[in-house]
Amino acid sequence: MSTTTCTQPGCTGQIEDGYCNVCGSPAGAAPLPAGVATAPAPAGGGPRFAQGTGLAPNPASPPAHLSPASSRVSTRTSSSRLETAAIGSARGSRTQRRTGTSSTRLRGHRIGAGLTVVPPTPVADPLQAIMATPQLAESKRFCPSCGAAVGRTRDGVVGRTQGFCPACGSQFNFDPTLGPGDVVGGQYEVVGALAHGGLGWIYLARDQNVSGRWVVLKGLLNSGDKDAYEAAIAEREFLAEVEHPLIVEIYNFALHEGAGYTVMEYVGGKSLKEILTDRRAANSGVVDPLPVDQALAYVLEILPAFSYLHDHNLLYCDFKPDNMIQQGESLKLIDLGGVRRINDDASAIFGTVGYQAPEVPTEGPSIASDIYTIGRTLVTMVLDFRGNTSTYVAALPPVGDTPVFQEYDSFYRLVVKACAPDPADRFASVDEMRTQILGVLREVVATNRGPGSPALHSSASAHFEAPMADSTGAPLGWDELPTLKVDPSDPMANWLAGINDPVGRLNALQGAAQDTVEVRLARIHAAIAAGRFELAQEGITALLNADAWEWRAVWLAGLRELAMGDVVAARASFNAVYGQVPGELAPKLALATTCELSGELDVAEQMYVVCARSDANYTAPSAFGLARIRAQRSDAEGTLHALALVAPTRASYPVARVRRAGVLVNTSTTLTGLDDALTSIKGVPVEPSLRSDLEIAVYTAALTQVLKNARVSGSVGGVVAKEQPLRLALEAAYRTRARLARGEDERIDLVDRANAVRPRTTT
Fold it and tell me: What are the Protein kinase domain coordinates in residue numbering (predicted)?
């Protein structure tokens, strides 16, 4: 068998049988991307420095073209409480979405994607896993035919493990049928029972024909249970076709005394359910959920197994924490007893209450129902999910009652989409979900670093280009928000890349040889740029009529509405896009922008913080947004923290440093703060006139403090904090600024100010 090295970043695996034996990615998969009024002058008035560069006493007036609603301010903090544009089933569409799993640009590399660390689970000696007394708990004994409780203790008499159901008369037997030393199929020597599963007892055995390797034998609950028997046979047939490094391997199917047993790979370690149980035990019996980043890392690791199954027209059906085993630093998907073919309409359906999608009993399982179980599993791992089989059997707890949802807004939007009541509103494929989980994981890890933490790196998005503008003085305009990437698989992708004339772009797009989706999206964007808003709306409506889930059309609708000044409508559109691609930052930046413009400052701040922390490409525009919001609240410390996020490598860095200096000048009550204002622009390329304005403002504020309190000591910008040295420094700053004046009147005014502040002399 030939092997090649996996192409995924950070993965050391080899391609075997078309898939990586470490991360599970298919061969040839494209790598995943990894805001001043100044202090009064003692004489001659104040300097002109820093208008609008620090803390403003009142919120800036909204641009005239914005709708009246933009002036209102609210205290909502969760984006889920904002209006959202209609998309998907909310548009009245009942057409089932096309589901596909063949795209490789949405697949990536292994556990945690190098973003977080999941503690390894020690692999114990298999012999230690054997049950000393293999007996099924009475609470789990039910008639295999009618489901009635059987084998229970009554009147002090211990319940029987064998007998007949008093409700329907069917025979039941919960005793292991195999014992130590039994040899199954002439090859597998039983060592003992490991556990009791949904289809019966599971045994540990040695393969006498293959170097005594450990194997697992999985038998039937009751040989007379027709559904269970058929499920076991089905499991044998399906699993004979399954070969993936993240899925337990099936070796054989053996018979012993009229009973059938599946022979599979022994996987040591612990299931996620056992890990959660251990955490609860270590927490004095109180539920201790997994950190959100670890839960996401687990699911991110196992999703390629689902992609593999779906690519082979198979459905898993019964995913839950019990069926993921961590073995050291790797995971395995186990217990494929419920696996069935996508087009199977006859076999018995196996699932678990609280995890199974609500439509399965009537419509049967699907890729969408598998995605639902993944979402429910994520929620179960991070919450004390009480009521998951009753009150919330087909719903999620309210955001207001769930701190995890409040802290990790993107995570909430992720599970809302995965667990949508309408199957068509869920992720269309596991690959699509995996891409969004990766983005959400990146945001969660960034959030966990704490407030004020800048992004550590930039990450390529599957759907958006990086933002190109920082918009230091006002919220981003519609044409400054990130642009959509062109799908390289579109037949017209190369042709679109060649249209570089912004003036004639709309005409060129009107004459495209093929009217593909990408051409239609580009035509809408060009129409917005040309001010042809009616034409843009026609294109948006046509796209959504063809596919009610085409969130890119809703994104363009938001751009159109923002360009027209309808901020509230744009906010709803961007909020809808956020719900569709919760791992993408572009919708969050757009939502933050429209929330800032419409007075939803708390939501805007939350979105800006997430963007600033998560991706270096988004840090600067988000930092300036944060600074504007915090300046409106007269939050000097918060404004300084925001401006400090702008990296020295960014073109807007000098602006951030000047604004930082302006905040310090206006709010500092000590000479240290004023000295820090000058230090802020040391070595920073700043216009000479602006630098002089800052010096004038700093020395003016310092002189004011000294005149109020003669006992003040220290220095500012190397000048001793005494009246005469400060007056001399202020005079020099005025004269330097006068030499830079643009007109004679300005020069004379500045010289007069210099003369007014100079120390009195006898000459």
Answer: 188-438
Side chain identity, residue 705: Q
Check if the beta carbon of residue 205 is closer than 8 Å to that of residue 189: yes
What topology does CATH give the domain 35-57+635-763? 1.25.40
What are the extents of the domains in the chain?
A: 1-31, 35-57+635-763, 59-105+462-633, 111-115+270-448, 126-153+162-265
Beta strand pairing call for 324-327 and 270-271: antiparallel
Do residues 632 and 56 make contact, with C-beta atoms less than 8 angstroms apart?
yes
- pLDDT at position 711: 84
CATH number belonging to domain 59-105+462-633: 1.25.40.10
Catalytic residue among 225, 293, 311, 318: 318
In 3-state terms, what secondary structure has residue 313? coil
| Rounded-to-integer distance, Cα 537 and Cα 518, Å | 16
**For 722, how many CA atoms within 13 A lie in the half-sphere containing its CB?**
4
Its pTM stands at: 0.83
Strand positions, DSSP E, 696-745: 715-716, 719-720
Fold of 126-153+162-265: Phosphorylase Kinase; domain 1 (3.30.200)
DSSP 160-172: PSEEE-TTT--EE
pLDDT tens digits along 279-316: 999 999 999 999 999 999 999 999 999 999 999 999 99
Cβ neighbours, 10 Å, residue 16? 18
Q: How far apart are CA 538 and CA 394, in angstroms?
A: 37
**Same fold? 35-57+635-763, 111-115+270-448:** no
Question: Is 318 annotated as catalytic?
Answer: yes
Among residues 687, 637, 298, 204, the alpha carbon closest in space to that of 452 is found at 637
Mean pLDDT of the chain: 87
Report the distance separating Cα 106 and Cα 116, nearest Å.
20
Contact 606, 409 (CB under 8 A): yes
Whether residue 520 contacts residue 551, with contact meaning beta carbons closer than 8 Å, is answered with no
